[in-house]
Design goal:
7 strands; alpha+beta
């Protein structure tokens, strides 16, 4: 019998905030401010760590801005490369869609680097569509293309 895999999506706490920060540094091509991480402690269900067999392997950060209450924005959703294709990202997306429903959102949006062909295909396979290309979106990105696709999915 094959060993079982256990995937969990759990809260950010003062004890694991350093891990959340390190995952962002390793996974994403742009730097995030200390304020971004500090705020992650205070937003409850909108910031999560993903675990595979009790190992932190993914990070999720959502934004629900009162000025656009019908949109839940995925600031970050990423998994360490060796743990991709194990449904960890899908578990974080499921959490996201649940939050979108609970908040009364109509759509979920995210930005994906135009260099990330595999990433945009991942989103498309999960019901997102490319809405537009935003030139120079990643201003703080040091290397490569700074453009991004805006992807969007309706909340059902």
């Amino acid at each position: 019998m094959a060993p079982s895999k256990r995937i969990a999506v759990d809260d950010i706490t003062p004890n694991n905030l350093g891990t959340f920060k390190k995952l962002h540094q390793v996974i994403f091509p742009v730097p995030y401010s200390d304020q971004f991480f500090k705020e992650s402690l205070a937003i409850g269900e909108l910031a999560k760590l993903a675990y595979f067999n009790d190992i932190s392997v993914g990070a999720l950060r959502l934004t629900h801005d009162k000025s656009t209450p019908t949109i839940l924005y995925i600031s970050t959703l990423g998994v360490l490369p060796p743990y991709r294709s194990l449904s960890i990202g899908t578990a974080m997306l499921t959490h996201t869609m649940t939050q979108a429903k609970e908040l009364g959102c109509e759509v979920v949006e995210a930005h994906v680097s135009t260099e990330n062909e595999m990433g945009v295909e991942w989103w498309k396979k999960r019901g997102f569509e490319v809405v537009e290309v935003l030139e120079g979106y990643y201003e703080k990105k040091e290397d490569g293309d700074r453009d991004a696709w805006l992807v969007r999915r309706r909340v059902e």
